[in-house]
Amino acid sequence: MPVATLLRRATRALQRARLHYGHGTDNARDDAAALVWHALRLPDRPGAARLRRGASSGQQARLRALLERRIVGRVPVVYLTHRCWFAGMEMYVDERVLIPRSPLAELIERGFAPWIAAARVRRVADLGTGSGCLAIACARAFPRARVDALDISADALAVARLNIRRHRLARRVRALESDHFSALGREAYDIIVSNPPYVGRAELAALPPEYRHEPALALAAGRDGLDSVRAILRDAVRFLRPGGILVVEVGNSEALVRRRFARLPFTWLDFTRGGGGVFLLTREQLVAAQRSAQRARG
Ligand SMILES: C[S@@+](CC[C@H](N)C(=O)[O-])C[C@H]1O[C@@H](n2cnc3c(N)ncnc32)[C@H](O)[C@@H]1O
């Protein structure tokens, strides 16, 4: 059977199954293409001539098995192919880590402009690194910086280390097991970036089955989803250099964060490629907020 026909049939099968998208792809055609290329071990953009050629029965059987895991098991495609792209870089991904999809990629690609002068950036921390995608993208964006990739999950750190090695960044990116900032001593950073868990209990229970394949640790953050954000807002200031910035993704918890931390002068960032729910605070803003809270307590 020609590859083009396999692709059409796979797309229709996925469309009929009414799956949830949002783990790196947003439609059945892209999911089908990723699975067909993977099953047939084809490059990402096979030419028209290759699409007209046939697929062996072994290749077709491999594709059927993958489609069954996507449709019946509701496994996101990236966990089947084990690869995805983030900030223009290929990442290895499996079920030990969240599938990279943060809008922060866009901000990192432009060197956090206009919020910090790229030339001054020497130290970056990525809190809750998962696959290491943000840490690795930061190391690429700031070639003179050293990056700490922190995570509480030893499993996630194993994946992060693999990606760090693949991108030949082991000399500048260090993966550290840490409950938020607990493993840090007197380190101080120009940038602390984080995509922490931010899903509340009720919202977690209502997520489509695809999300159950992601580590609970990567999504769940207590009853209201803000356990991690609270810890970051409490402690980040101690680990920022003067002029340093804290950038945190909180996704659709943005409204709740605005309400719960009404005194903090957040800047909410815009993204041209979509996504949102990312705030920025400077060290000086955090210091001022702490002082005014102390004064208010008397
Ligand atoms: C939403 S995932 C983000 C992964 C990756 N940075 C990304 O953007 O794809 C959150 C990560 O935070 C980690 N995490 C959860 N609680 C943590 C804690 N208390 N301290 C450090 N990391 C934590 C999880 O293991 C997970 O890897």
How are the SSEs ordered, and which strands pair?
Layout: H1 3-17, H2 28-39, H3 48-52, H4 57-71, H5 77-81, E1 83-86, E2 89-92, H6 104-109, E3 123-127, H7 133-141, E4 146-151, H8 154-166, E5 173-177, E6 189-194, H9 201-205, H10 216-219, H11 227-235, E7 240-249, H12 254-260, E8 267-268, E9 278-282, H13 283-297
The chain binds S-adenosylmethionine.
Residues 97-98, 100, 102, 128-131, 133-134, 150-153, 156, 178-180, 195-197, 217-218, 228 line the site of S-adenosylmethionine.
| Helical amount | 40-55%
CATH superfamily of the largest domain: Vaccinia Virus protein VP39
Q: What percent strand?
A: 15-25%
| Whole-number mean pLDDT | 95
Shape: elongated
List the domain count as a whole number: 2
Report a brief summary of the structure.
This protein has 298 residues and is of the alpha/beta class. It has helices spanning 3-17, 28-39, 48-52, 57-71, 77-81, 104-109, 133-141, 154-166, 201-205, 216-219, 227-235, 254-260, 283-297, and strands spanning 83-86, 89-92, 123-127, 146-151, 173-177, 189-194, 240-249, 267-268, 278-282.
Descriptive overview:
This protein is α/β, with parallel strands linked by helices and 298 residues long. The chain folds into 2 domains: 79 residues, no CATH class; 202 residues, Vaccinia Virus protein VP39 (Rossmann fold, 3-Layer(aba) Sandwich). 40% of the residues lie in helices and 16% in strands. The strands form 2 sheets. A 7-stranded mixed sheet has the order 5-4-3-6-7-9-8. Strands 1-2 form a two-stranded antiparallel sheet. Helix 1 crosses helix 2, helix 1 runs parallel beside helix 4 and helix 2 packs across helix 4. It is elongated, with a radius of gyration of 21 Å. The relative contact order is 0.11. The site of S-adenosylmethionine has 24 residues, from helix 7, strand 4 and helix 10.
